[in-house]
Every structure is written in C-alpha cells, then in structure tokens.
Amino acid sequence: MSITAGAERWVDEVARLTQPAKVIWADGSRQEYDGLVEDMLRAGTLIEMNQRTYPGCSLHRSHPSDVARTEQLTFICTRSRDDAGPTNNWMAPADGKERVGALFRGSMRGRRMFVIPYLMGPADSPMSRVGIMVTDSAYVVASMHIMTRVGRVALRHMRAPEDFVAGLHSLGDLSPDRRFILHFPEEKLVWSIGSGYGGNALLGKKCHALRIGSWQAREEGWMAEHMLILGLEDPEGRVTYLAAAMPSASGKTNLAMMVSALPGWRVWTVGDDIAWIHVDAVGQLRAINPERGFFGVAPNTSVKTNPNATTMVRANTIFTNVALTSDGEPWWEGMGTDPPPGLVDWQGKPWSPGGAPAAHPNSRFTAPVTQCPSVSPAWEDPQGVPISGFIFGSRRSRVIPLVFEAFDWQHGVFLGSAMSTETTAAITGQVGVVRRDPMAMIPFCGYNMADYFGHWLNMGPRLAKPPRIFRVNWFRRDEDGQFLWPGYGENARILAWMVERIRGTGKAVETPLGFIPTPDAMDLSGLSLPRERLAQALAWDRAEWLEALGDLGKFYEEFGGRLPGPIREELSGMIRRLGG
Ligand code: GTP
Ligand code: SPV
Ligand code: MN
User: Fold this and answer.
1) Which residue, 50, 86, 79, is CA-closest to 184?
2) Where in the chain is CATH 3.40.449.10?
3) Is ligand 1 within 6 A of the CB of residue 252?
C-alpha cells in the first residue's frame, strides 16, 4: 500500500461530503504560491501593495466578523467529557459530526478544494509531524505556504499511511452562527468551518500543533507549548536558550526577536509562538519551532519596539486587516509614523482622525522566519535547541511583579498553573478582562488541564537538570496607568539576569513568592529608570497576593479530585509563607 493511501482515502471521503468543483494537491512550490496570489488579486480577496517599497507584499481584508479566534465556538470532542476538562468547550464526537457535518455537506460546491500536505517542524527531525489539510480558501493555502513546510517534504516524512493529523476546513458562509472549530484528538482530526481567520483556519497552528499536539505530547511523553524560543548570546559569545509562554498578543513575537538594549547581549530567534519539546538521551530538554513563518500582531510594531520585525515584513509578506496608505503601503497604530492623508482603514473605508483605529487591533503580518534578521543559525536544527529556562509571562496591570524565579521545578509548574491575564484583541470578546490562563494554554490545551499540570510535574524527574522557571510581567502599571517598566529591548536586562541565575551567579532575595532580583542584581547601565520605579515594579503585597491565591483556589476546585496533589500543596505552602 502506498504511503499516501490513508490520506487519499480521507480526501475522497471529504470530497464526497463537501462536493468541490475540483481537487488540487498543493506542492508548496514558488510557482504555486505566485499562482494563488494572482488568483486572489484577480478575485479581489488580495490587494497588491506598493511593489517598489514592499515587493511581494499584499493585503487581505477578512470579513469584519472574522478577525480573531473565536473560543466560544471552539470545542474538544472526546468520548468522555472529563477528558476535555472544565476549561474546554465539549461536544460528544458523534454530536459534533452530525451537527457540523450538516454544514460541511456541499460547502465547497463550485469551489476548488486544496489538499495541503504539510510538515510541522524541521525536515528530517524526529520531533516533526505531518498534517494533511483540506481547504477551499486560497488565502489559507498561501498562508500555509509561509507558515509550514508544504508538499513532498511532508509526504516524505510519513512513516505509515495513517501517520498524519487530518484537518478539514471550509469557509462555509463565514457566518458566526455557522462557525465551529472542532477537535477530535482521539482520531487526530480537526474540523473547522465558517472562519478564514488565522488560528481558526490555518489548522497547522493552534489546532494541530497545540490542541491535538498537546494530546499526543502527553501520550508520548513530550510537550507542546504556546511558547517562543530564543537564544540569548552573552558578551563572551555563549548562547543560552530560553522558552517563554505568554498569552495571545502579550509579547512573544516581540521578545523572540528583540534587539537588546544591553550592550554586548544579543537575541537569536528560533520561534515566536509554539514550541515542541522533547527529552533527549541525556535528560536534556530540546525544543523545535514547528512553524516556518510568523503570524504576528501588527499594531505597536515599530522601529523602536521591534526593528527586526519592521525589516522582516518589507517583502513577501501577507498583511491582514492593516490600514492602507495612498502609496499602497501598510499602516497601523503604533507604527511610529503619523497617519498619512488618504489612509483607508482595515475595512477599506476612508479613515479620519478621532474615530476607530485604522488598523484592526488584531491585524497581523504573515512572513517567513528566514526573513527575520535575528534568525538563529540553529532554528532548523533537527535535534532542537537545549532549553535552560522557562518563562511564564502574562499581562497584569497590578499584583504580579516584573520578574521572580521559582524555588524549583514543582514550584515553577505551580506558578505557571497560577497564571492569569488580561484579555486582548487576539480573541473575540471583551478586552482587558482578567481571566485564568495557566501556562498561556487555556485556549489551546486539548485535554483536561488538571492532567496537563500532572504531565508538567512528571517531566521534572525525567530531566538531568530541570530548566529554571521564571515568572514575568512586562505590563504592570502605576497609579496613572503608565507602564512601570519600559519593556521591549530593555527586557534583555531581565533575560541577562535569568542567565546569571541559571549559571548560579545572579543575585536575588528569597521571598514567599520566590526569588526576586536584589535592587542591584540587574544591569541597568544606560537606562534612565528611577530606582523607586524599579522597586515598584518588583514589589509584592501580602494582602493582594492572599486575595489572588483565594481566587486561584476557587479555580483549582473546578478540577475536583483530578487536580494533582503537588499543585494543591504548593498553593497551601504559598499561603502559609504569606502568613495566611
Ligand atoms: P500572539 O501572536 O497573539 O500569540 O501574540 P504575542 O504573544 O506574540 O504578542 P506580541 O509580541 O505580538 O505583542 C503584542 C502586543 O504586546 C504588542 O502590540 C505590544 O503592544 C505589546 N508588548 C509586547 N512586548 C511588550 C513589552 O515588553 N512591554 C509592553 N508594555 N508591551 C509589550
Ligand atoms: C494567538 O492568538 O495566540 C495567535 C494568533 O498566535 S492565532 O493564530 O490566531 O492563534
Ligand atoms: Mn499565539
């Protein structure tokens, strides 16, 4: 039997259901990409940008009701409801198939159906995995070209005819009333209909690499995380690799390609959103970036905040929902230039000052990793890069200090599980509401999160030297609503302290929270930050923390007896240390 027999059988089945006019297998070639772009320019689903200043770039405007992930329409369909857990929406597999199958019936009539074999991870890496995705959206195919490795490289990686994650996607009628993103982890299957937006539609990303991936990772003893991966080079040329989990639109892309404000230090980019992490033969964690492109937030990307990104998106980039200047160039809020006259907003309407943002707050760029000036020489290493530290970061105006370090692995896992964050425009719904987001995985964990905490705990003893675990919060504000810490390139000062801690030299004080840097521990040379402002950023308050831990306890209760004992013990240990 041929290696693609399983995929062909599934594709036939899907074609019978969706009734496309034509079936096209994508090969991942440049020619194919150019053809797709031409088709879309002709159809008006893509707008050509200024080819002199932005060669190879184009703009896509999505349906105004389809601009972010829709978590309320995202489901985990496991046989047992408990296996999805209290933090996921759940549907019985048979119900999901029936309800959403009805929407797929004939949904591709008169449209082309593209079959995309894609590889998540570097070619020839034992950690890489294959997906076969079907879609009726040319924008999705073009985006998959940038974000994943498409074509023979994927088919070549298959070990058996069933060795792939299957993803069925159709735009349907783009109505939020008929939009569903269903995951069947027990069948390695994803069904998505009614959305053309990034995380809902590029099925290799959140659906495969995180929701199905996390399920497989637990079964097989590895980790699939919502993490950037970076190498931090010190003035002596030694590189330390760190992986950081932060919720959507909360700083991963920025940190992953940051230009250090600390002289002599340098960041190398391996990945900006997802990490697949395995234990190697000597007990070292090694991480790969399963993607080959960045799907990054445009607003606030400027020469000042993220110079590497501004360089990276000057060619071969698909912009989605940014504003367009009369010169055919992209524009967004926080780009560092004034809105030029003649600007049209993300919906194609003339924009005038004082109204709604010109670019959608979740407007994005899709660009190849290789165009990033800080791309790491090791970014496609089939063995992955060795991880020495994990960072958990979230967006909190109050309570959470700028940085502190866990006492040990178990305490660090607890700190990750305790994360909460203010919501952003990356998801449909209210912005700025504090919600629980353990390990930045609340929207992406494909199984019961209590079991996920257990899986994290179980990784520790398998490691020769478990990575140090740090908690950060770049987003703490003063009474006037101003950020206490300047962030962006200045974050290098905090990363440098982490590397010193990993090496056993960085200075810290022990507190009930963990180790907090002493006032002189971080190199602040060249930064004009009043001492008391840093102190405010690093401060913690007993009463605030006890209140927060009370909320955390309530969250843990949702998991009942499934919550691992050590997590419960860490919580009571922390309350005790705080005198509560
Ligand atoms: P996803 O792609 O949705 O997973 O987001 P992400 O985590 O990669 O977030 P990204 O780096 O794109 O940052 C999103 C927003 O966070 C930016 O537009 C900035 O406004 C803000 N941001 C990032 N880093 C910092 C920082 O160090 N300080 C402050 N104050 N804001 C930051
Ligand atoms: C996120 O929301 O975390 C993203 C964008 O990285 S999306 O691809 O839509 O998930
Ligand atoms: Mn993300």
Assistant:
1) 79
2) 5-44+71-221
3) yes
Residue nearest to atom 1 of ligand 2 (CA): 248
Residues of the chain with CATH 3.90.228.20: 225-292+376-562
Does ligand 1 have an atom closer than 6 angstroms to the CB of 306? Answer: no
Q: What is the pLDDT of residues 196-230, one digit of tens each?
A: 999 999 999 999 999 999 999 999 999 999 999 99
Domain 5-44+71-221 CATH assignment equals 3.30.460.10: no
Torsion of CA 340, 426, 296, 482, to 10 degrees: 70
Ligand 3 centroid distance, CA of 13 (Å): 32
Ligand 3: centre distance to CA 84 (Å): 21
Chain mean pLDDT for the chain:
98
Structural tokens at position 33 = 């990409």
Q: How far apart are CA 417 and CA 442, in angstroms?
A: 10
Burial 418-449 (b: 16+ CB within 10 A, else e): bbbbbbbbbbbeeeeebebbbbbbbbbbbbbb
Three-class SS of residue 72? helix
Report the pLDDT averaged over residues 166-193. 98
pTM reported for the whole predicted model: 0.98
> pLDDT, tens digit, for every residue of 285-311?
999 999 999 999 999 999 999 999 999
CB 297 less than 6 A from any atom of ligand 1: yes
In 3D space, the residue among 238, 244, 240 whose CA is nearest the CA of residue 256 turns out to be 244
CATH architecture of 225-292+376-562: Alpha-Beta Complex (3.90)
For residue range 230-266, what is the model confidence (pLDDT) as tens digits?
999 999 999 999 999 999 999 999 999 999 999 999 9
Q: Residue 543 is which amino acid?
A: A
Q: Is the CB of 476 under 6 A from ligand 1?
A: no
State the closest ligand 1 atom to the C-alpha of 251, by its place in the atom list counted from 1: 11
**Two structure tokens written together for 231:** 């190498």
Instruction: In whole angstroms, give the CA distance from residue 380 to residue 376.
Output: 8
Q: Which atom of ligand 2 is nearest to 206's Cα?
A: 10
How far apart are the C-alpha atoms of 163 and 229, rounded to whole Å? 27
Those residues whose beta carbon sits under 5 angstroms from the ion ligand 3 are 248, 273
Ligand 2 touching residue 198 (CB < 6 A) = yes
Tell the residue nearest (CA) to atom 5 of ligand 1. 249
